[in-house]
Amino acid sequence: MLGICRGRRKFLAASLTVLFVPAITWIYLFAGSFEDGKPVSLSPLESQPHSPRYTASSQRERESLEVRVRQVEEENRVLRTQLSLAQARGPAPRHGNRSKTYSMEEGTGDSESLRAGIVAGNSSECGQQPAVEKCETIHVAIVCAGYNASRDVVTLVKSVLFHRRNPLHFHLIADAIAKQILATLFQTWMVPAVRIDFYDADELKSEVSWIPNKHYSGIYGLMKLVLTKTLPSNLERVIVLDTDITFATDIAELWAVFHKFKGQQVLGLVENQSDWYLGNLWKNHRPWPALGRGYNTGVILLLLDKLRKMKWEQMWRLTAERELMSMLSTSLADQDIFNAVIKQNPFLVYQLPCFWNVQLSDHTRSEQCYRDVSDLKVIHWNSPKKLRVKNKHVEFFRNLYLTFLEYDGNLLRRELFGCPSEADVNSENLQKQLSELDEDDLCYEFRRERFTVHRTHLYFLHYEYEPASDNTDVTLVAQLSMDRLQMLEAICKHWEGPISLALYLSDAEAQQFLRYAQGSEVLMSRHNVGYHIVYKEGQFYPVNLLRNVAMKHISTPYMFLSDIDFLPMYGLYEYLRKSVIQLDLANTKKALIVPAFETLRYRLSFPKSKAELLSMLDMGTLFTFRYHVWTKGHAPTNFAKWRTATTPYRVEWEADFEPYVVVRKDCPEYDRRFVGFGWNKVAHIMELDAQEYEFTVLPNAYMIHMPHAPSFDITKFRSNKQYRICLKTLKEEFQQDMSRHYGFAALKYLTAENNS
């Protein structure tokens, strides 16, 4: 009775508040909005700063009133929400086959015995649940292994970051692949008030490898069992998430549920929404033991300190050993073992409301978890079908997921106001470098781009590489944007060796690329192509940054520095490997030049030999590259000599020389100050010459540039005078830097430029 009375009093108070507070407030504001009997406008559009009546004092009063109006409106919104919740908790009409609905704060259960015995204390209380402190750090643990899971976890993290208002600490149990990918991603993402720690999943394999597991997650699907040992001993609580989770609310709401745990409750779980553990899905279906429908482990709240005191490690191991004697293996990985432990120890679990883990697998009761899709908190794509799962509201769920999938991650770099971030050396250095730039400089945007940190996702698709036994392997290196995707299949057909590509894409374009690649038999049959996504930011195409990213992540001792618009001759890969040995590239500083040609025809019968190429050259079907617009770029290759050459020959550096070369992987990087069009390759070749690389032309190698529409950057170069002025300025500064770095020998670059 006391609880009922309190509920009614709360309902009545909320009703009165909603009715009277707005009225009183607006009377107050209306009265306060008159001055000398005349109304004072609250709209900034109606204020008259030049009238005698417009003073600093009245301006402050007007702003104060505006702030108060907004505060009252927010208070009213909160009160209306509380009122609707109170109404929802009232007795529902009794219909025969009604769907069960749940309040936004209550734990749930299917039977009186569950409510009374298993999840005692899970029901909502009259008092509000304790709020999470404003700057309290929320800890999240995720097991992630491999290329695909690394992509999935990014979407999960985006959904969490989008709603969060608290600092976050992610604990990632990752294999070597996922660690490399995610460490680079978060380092370049630079999200304030987010900390990342990695734990070696491969070191944990021995802890769970003795458990046979039929689930597609493999051995990594068992690692949530050992989190009490893996995570720091001083970490008291953590939210554990699967990678196929999407948040639709602030994760702090879930963190606050820890305050509801009572007695020996140490696990927060949502009931399983399928009939799996009921054992009636097919004839002779025999699941692991579970309490009722069992619990789903896609979202877990762990009280680590209490679990350690209860000797959780010993508890789950003994249970697993006992059940495996009859079950032989797990079907649902860690979930089977968690449920077996809970079956024996029901007091351990606090049953979360099911909107904290709406499970979108076929034939689930997920629709009973919400009255409206706007009530959703967490969506769990726990079916192998993922987005193709059957559900009445699957279109809404799919659109929500796709929203975060394609959401611009750069927008999530926002600061948490009032919560100081930990000092980050990289961020501080970046701010210092940017502060030293002159914002009044007409070339400021060019100079700033050099210091822009672009979010980078390495190995966006599955990658496999087997090192060559003779240590002569060569990787083709190139960069591209969305408008050059059509070149990928052709390049893969011409070059059978490893490829490293940096793609400059937005988040939405990255997903378009993924669909394109997955729909291509040619690309899907090649596992030795590394696709590295560099996300768009700023107004320039960071061509040399892209080249550096692709160069840095090769697995071979040598690399062929190409461009995406070129098709290498058939057999060039094997020819270059032989040339590497012949010219002793391992022990000499050589840059092997692959002569470049071009065609103006979109349909070309590609020459299969040097003789055929020379014939097409004579017929005017092919031309030496850029002979009609930029002869100096490739003239030092000496095409006249190449026509009859049968052995490699050396050429000297000349001003504006920019050939395509094969070099060792330890060659210098490209200079990042050059963006868009102009001097990006020229500067690199100049630095190779300054480091005394020997330029050697290969007599039986060639590549052909395929026609395409002019790029946006070359259009800017041709049409924008300031663009050309800034490029000239950057070029002069680069030459001066070369002189300072390489001394007297580098003076020739200044002289050559003046004479050209």
UniProtKB/TrEMBL annotation:
Residues 44-57 have a biased composition (Polar residues). Pathway: Protein modification; protein glycosylation. Gene3D superfamilies: Spore Coat Polysaccharide Biosynthesis Protein SpsA, Chain A. GO terms for molecular function: glucuronosyltransferase activity; xylosyltransferase activity. It comes from the Eukaryota. It holds the Pfam family Glyco_transf_8. It is found in: Golgi apparatus membrane. The chain crosses the membrane at residues 12-31. GO terms for cellular component: Golgi membrane. InterPro entries: Glyco_trans_8 (IPR002495), Nucleotide-diphossugar_trans (IPR029044), Xyl/GlcA_transferase (IPR051292). It is a single-pass type II membrane protein. One of its GO terms (biological process) is protein O-linked glycosylation via mannose. Keywords: Glycoprotein, Glycosyltransferase, Golgi apparatus, Membrane, Multifunctional enzyme, Signal-anchor, Transferase, Transmembrane, Transmembrane helix. It catalyses: 3-O-[beta-D-GlcA-(1->3)-beta-D-Xyl-(1->4)-Rib-ol-P-Rib-ol-P-3-beta-D-GalNAc-(1->3)-beta-D-GlcNAc-(1->4)-(O-6-P-alpha-D-Man)]-Thr-[protein] + UDP-alpha-D-xylose = 3-O-[alpha-D-Xyl-(1->3)-beta-D-GlcA-(1->4)-beta-D-Xyl-(1->4)-Rib-ol-P-Rib-ol-P-3-beta-D-GalNAc-(1->3)-beta-D-GlcNAc-(1->4)-(O-6-P-alpha-D-Man)]-Thr-[protein] + UDP + H(+); 3-O-{beta-D-GlcA-(1->[3)-alpha-D-Xyl-(1->3)-beta-D-GlcA-(1->](n)-4)-beta-D-Xyl-(1->4)-Rib-ol-P-Rib-ol-P-3-beta-D-GalNAc-(1->3)-beta-D-GlcNAc-(1->4)-O-6-P-alpha-D-Man}-L-Thr-[protein] + UDP-alpha-D-xylose = 3-O-{(1->[3)-alpha-D-Xyl-(1->3)-beta-D-GlcA-(1->](n+1)-4)-beta-D-Xyl-(1->4)-Rib-ol-P-Rib-ol-P-3-beta-D-GalNAc-(1->3)-beta-D-GlcNAc-(1->4)-O-6-P-alpha-D-Man}-L-Thr-[protein] + UDP + H(+); 3-O-{(1->[3)-alpha-D-Xyl-(1->3)-beta-D-GlcA-(1->](n)-4)-beta-D-Xyl-(1->4)-Rib-ol-P-Rib-ol-P-3-beta-D-GalNAc-(1->3)-beta-D-GlcNAc-(1->4)-O-6-P-alpha-D-Man}-L-Thr-[protein] + UDP-alpha-D-glucuronate = 3-O-{beta-D-GlcA-(1->[3)-alpha-D-Xyl-(1->3)-beta-D-GlcA-(1->](n)-4)-beta-D-Xyl-(1->4)-Rib-ol-P-Rib-ol-P-3-beta-D-GalNAc-(1->3)-beta-D-GlcNAc-(1->4)-O-6-P-alpha-D-Man}-L-Thr-[protein] + UDP + H(+). Residues 42-62, 83-110 are annotated as: Disordered. In the N-terminal section; belongs to the glycosyltransferase 8 family. This is LARG1 glucuronyltransferase.
